[in-house]
Amino acid sequence: METLEEICFRIKTALPAARVEIIPNASPCGQRSLLLGREQGLAVATFLRDDPQLRLDYCSNVTGVDRLEPSLPQGFVQSPSSAGLKKEAGEGLGESGTGCLEAVYHLFSMAHKNGPVVLRLRTENRLAAVRLPSLTPVWRSCEFQEREIFDLFGIVFDGHPDLRRLLMWEGFQGFPMRRDYLVADDFECEPTPHGDVPKRMSPRQGCAEVIQKTATADPRV
Amino acid sequence: MEVTDQELKIDLQKQGVLMTSLNELYNWGRKNSVWPLQFGLACCAIEMIAASMARYDLARFGAEVFRPSPRQADLMIVAGTVTKKMAPQVVRLYNQMAEPKYVIAMGACAISGGPFKQGYNVLKGIDRYLPVDVHIPGCPPRPEALLHAFMTLQNKIASQPLTGPARPRHLRAGAPSEFSVPQCGPHGLVPPSNPAVWRPPTAAQAG
Question: Are A146 and A203 part of one and the same domain?
Answer without folding.
Answer: no
